[in-house]
Amino acid sequence: MLGFIKKDLAIIKSNFKILGILIICYIFMSISGKMDISFILPFMSVMIMISSFSYDTYNKWDAYLITLPNGRKNSVKAKYGATVLLIGVTSIVTILISCLISFKSINFEELLVTNLGTIFGTLLVLSIMYPIIYKFGLEKARIMIFAGVFGVVIIGGFLLEKIDLTNVLKPLAFLENYLILILIIVMVIMVYISYFISLKIQMNKEY
Amino acid sequence: MGNILEINNLCKKYDNFELKDITFSLPKGMIMGFIGENGSGKTTTIKAILGIIKKYEGDIKIFGVDNKTNSEEFKEDIGVVLDDMFFPEILTPNDINNSFKSIFKNWDSKMFYDYLKEFSLLPNKQIKTFSKGMRKKLEIITSLSHKPKLLILDEPTSGLDPVARLEIINIFQKFIENADASILFSTHITTDLEHIADYITFIDNGHIILSKTKDELLEKYGIVKCTFEEFQKIDKKDYQKALKSKYEYKVLVSDKRKFKDKYNIKVIDKVTLDELMILMVKGED
Questions:
Q1: To the nearest whole angstrom, how far is the Cα of A207 from the nearest Cα of chain B?
Q2: Which domain holds residue B198?
């Protein structure tokens, strides 16, 4: 798996300067205190990793990797591994910057929950996108995700108008104390299920 | 001498093409030229061998192991070059070395860099800056640097100029001299095989037409050039194929000596792989 992770990171290394620019933007925005963009670095790292799929397809690496030892399995593991690694590193960078900029007035619990929320969001994108990319390819997946997000926003907006969420969530209020633990468990299960589906698709794919 | 690769009754059906009962084997330490015109089924066969396509009938054994087995240990000993370029062009040879030393247990970085130097490929240049010949050389170098026991090459010289083709053939020759390896070399440029192949397997329209040693082919097979009147006298069972040209008939025979004796013909030309392929594909029974 390590070899495939190295290859994926080598492909996206030219995009690291974008992350560098975003770090600078994030520092300035945090100092000015005008807008919270703590989600931007982990979110961009997922977007950058997704772009590695297009290099693989365009350069016909997809067929070649099957000829390498455990290529089908290790390539899927590596995509998930490299993405989770990048999300982890960019989240740590985000937390460190927040701590350094506002070390006197920092609320650690709030910082942790905000960043966990961001990590959850990015892992949700990964968990939905990757199996779709493996099944249909990046181009079709982009269109499907766009249509999916559009559909969710419309339906969600409609439901929110009709349903009072406060009443619906009331019975679940006791879970608030376990929010962090629940988030972590859901994230692990979500990524594992997604990985399992992607692996199944990749193991049977023909080129 | 065991077989390093065995294919038995391989069948694969597409909407507009079909591989039918592909059967041949490659003995250890030998080079097999896998020839046939474009679209004859060479790449599909190679994809089945390598597991790139999975749904097919028949069985394929590599190093005596069924290639559908869950263990992919045998792929450690296979070097592959596919017909299309396959390295992401944003990578550099340094990136390839860095990744592949974690993919193959036997990866030899020194060998890889020695080859790069020998073929004047700069390690820190992105692949997209390389010419087609340079990219192919990089792919071949990569396929050799984990010291494989079996090389599977799908059209490695296709689209290259004669100088680049010669250089690439020389790489294989040098590799074979130093290692007890076997090569399955698919190509439609048969001249590339004249000097290096031990076996020739010929595929046409999804069927194996013949699979023999090159020496047997070139010694026993021959071309008789004759007029229409002379051709009329030849019994159909005594020749393989015949092709009419403007002034003469070219007749492919599979046993020169027998043919000479029967028809009292003094000169039967040696057949080249190119002529063999043309007559087999275009000739009439």
A1: 6
A2: 3-213
